[in-house]
What we know:
It is built from 14 helices and no strands. By secondary structure, it is mainly α. It is globular.
Amino acid sequence: MKVNYKNLLKYLIILVTSYFIINTLAKSWSDVPAWHEINYLYLGFAIFFFALQPAIKAYAWFKMMLYANSESIEAGKVEVDITQQIKIYYESYMMRYIPGNVVGILGRGYMNQEHDIKMVKSLWGWVLENFLEVLIGGLLGSFIISQVLDLQELQILSYLGLIAGVVVLVKFEWVEALFLKVFKMKFAQKLDGEIEVMGLNLAQRFEIAFYILAGWIFYSISFLFTVASLYGEVILDHNLIIINAFAWSAGYLSIVTPSGTGVREYFMIEGLIRSGGIVSAISGIITIVARLVNVLGELVSYVSYKLLINQIEN
């Protein structure tokens, strides 16, 4: 009997991903003190709004691939379908639970190669998506530096970084040109003709930024409901949104620990205590429940996508 190694690898990845998701979920749930009462209605709202974040980002991914491959589409060389790209995004998105983010990043590229979309286009899409997430998260989170941490020098540096980020977004073609120059100088013989840029115009880049911003709005609302699930009421405090964004950005940019583990939680606890007026015991529980909401929200989003795809395909 002929073994289909492609399907075997696919199921192996699903099993490995499922193991790490269940492990993360079990650990997060076990860390919540049994004595602390949780409002499950607000917890449900938190999960629901977080589930919208991957959905809007999946659509942003489809639009990026559509714009980035417009010439190939017109020439009839490539077909970029919304169902196809959302599937690729979600499947690779869930691979992030496998230690080492490279699995999810390369997974997206390899899956797109099956549809004749070059790996470099997928990698450019990942770069732009993550750049925008950090830029918007950093913009929201930078307000905490002076208000809470009282670090004026660091605030100036953060604002300069954000200004530079906006310039990069507006003039992203400069980054692409530098990329081409460096790679063609180093790998002229091997890669010339294969290395391409993303090629999105300014309006298209701002459209993608709008979708990423919408994802951040859903994430922020989710965090407000996460806090409400422990307090029993919704606290409409902008500081909570700022703290969440700052903690996420600090964790993402951290190179000390893998995937920012511990860094995000540390800054969230410190921010909640200093700015949110929340006692240390509750702030620690908030970080645990927030992690739980993130995992459950991504699972709900993934399962919803699978059900929707099955309905479309059948």
